């Protein structure tokens, strides 16, 4: 579950946002001051942040500048002032999105979901308890690293980039092997998928993630 830090001194709004996000399956942390927010950032691993522009002990612009020195965490900024200057300043400082109060909670949730998805695709993929770090070319299952061969890694990446889509043996052969100019037969796909299942599935004999679609190919099912 994604963990979001809400930095907002209006307690009613803070609690309302927390409730709305948790209803959608997020885990939330809250802070009413920048000092409290800094403590949370240092103590908790976060996936995103909702940051109010004006807080009792400072402004969100300066806080965002400090965050961007060390982190690329997605930031959605809230402000009571609907001015183009504020929005430009926020974007120049590295804010990912900007909303003026009052706002629609439904729109905020949609924008937050988009930011998290964009950030996830840029740095890695998460599905079925499997986390694939594209920058480091590493794979983790329940936060414990699992070691894949080059072919197994590329197979998993191809599946996780195309969840819910049936991939034929021909597509897999062309994507994984033909790109290196290698000649292989259809059985190569089955053998390598069986090996991959041994490493990522809870029960490889009855796979839940990499499903065979008989006569068509394979599909990565998100459960």
From TrEMBL:
Source domain of life: Bacteria
PTM-bearing positions, type 4-aspartylphosphate: 52
PANTHER family referenced in this protein's UniProt entry, alphabetically: ALKALINE PHOSPHATASE SYNTHESIS TRANSCRIPTIONAL REGULATORY PROTEIN PHOP, REGULATOR OF RPOS
UniProt domain OmpR/PhoB-type: residue ranges: 122-222
InterPro entries, per the entry: OmpR/PhoB-type_DNA-bd, Sig_transdc_resp-reg_receiver, WalR-like
Record bears the keyword Isomerase: no
Pfam families associated with the record: Response_reg, Trans_reg_C
Protein name: Response regulator transcription factor
DNA-binding region as annotated in the record: 122-222
Keywords linked to the UniProt accession: DNA-binding, Phosphoprotein, Transcription, Transcription regulation
Domain Response regulatory: 3-116
Lineage, top ranks: Bacteria, Bacillati, Bacillota, Clostridia, Lachnospirales
SMART domains: REC, Trans_reg_C
